[in-house]
Target: Endothelial cells scavenger receptor
Amino acid sequence: MLKTLILFFTLWITFGYACQNNKYGTECSKSYGRCVNGEQCNPVNGTCPNGCAAGYYQPRCKKKCPPNLFERNCLQNCSENCYRKTCDRKTGACKRGCVAGWKPPLCNKECDDGTFGRNCSGLCGHCQYVAACHKETGECPPGCQPGYEGIYCKRKCETVYYGPDCDIVCNSSCRNRRCYSAREDCLQENRQYLHVEQEDCGNTTMFVAIGASVGILSAVIHVVALAIAYKR
Ligand SMILES: *[C@@H]1O[C@H](CO)[C@@H](O)[C@H](O)[C@H]1NC(C)=O
Ligand SMILES: *[C@@H]1O[C@H](CO)[C@@H](O)[C@H](O)[C@H]1NC(C)=O
Ligand SMILES: *[C@@H]1O[C@H](CO)[C@@H](O)[C@H](O)[C@H]1NC(C)=O
Ligand SMILES: *[C@@H]1O[C@H](CO)[C@@H](O)[C@H](O)[C@H]1NC(C)=O
Model:
């Protein structure tokens, strides 16, 4: 009888002891790790029956994932494109952002078209094709939209050039050789432009006509205003 009791007690101490509050071992003195879904660990040796919660590794799920691994049991590699290859041990979000060309937080997708650089925080210039803007560098390989130049297509054409990459000189018939940066039409000081016709840029008769009409209109307005003032 006594032998049986002692045996039972020993067995109970060693194996049967139902530890609570995430403890295990003799007298439940050892605290357990982070089992998945908050499960209780094995009461004898502290292992998690179904593995670890995100951010911890087996068998006891007490140790945190090293900086280049994440998820349950630390089985996922941080993205190759994480800056310094370190990510959040639970979510995989790259702690220090992405290397150039990749999109936060996981850095496993390329930058959206029109953006580039680290964390995709750069905005592409006026590339001829938005999709062609280089995701790492922001360069526009096939060139720029009319009116812009430079490898990033961010610089507007200087005044006497126009067209894609600003490589066409404005027509010599334009006054001061100035034309719109995106097309060959002559740029006019008064911000009107005339369609370029044979030696017709800066057509004086047209200007005289416009000037005259404006003059006449303003004269009429003055006369009317004066007439009203006199009547009162
Ligand atoms: C812990 O105990 C469980 C259940 O008895 C067993 O399957 C597992 O292999 C043990 N793990 C270690 C590390 O002792
Ligand atoms: C993580 O990287 C290691 C070493 O490069 C590789 O062997 C393993 O298959 C990768 N794991 C996953 C889930 O991609
Ligand atoms: C990228 O994002 C990380 C994390 O938010 C930040 O620490 C870093 O300064 C960012 N770098 C750039 C160049 O935007
Ligand atoms: C200027 O434009 C006219 C009309 O488009 C064209 O005939 C002429 O060749 C151009 N001149 C130059 C120097 O490009």
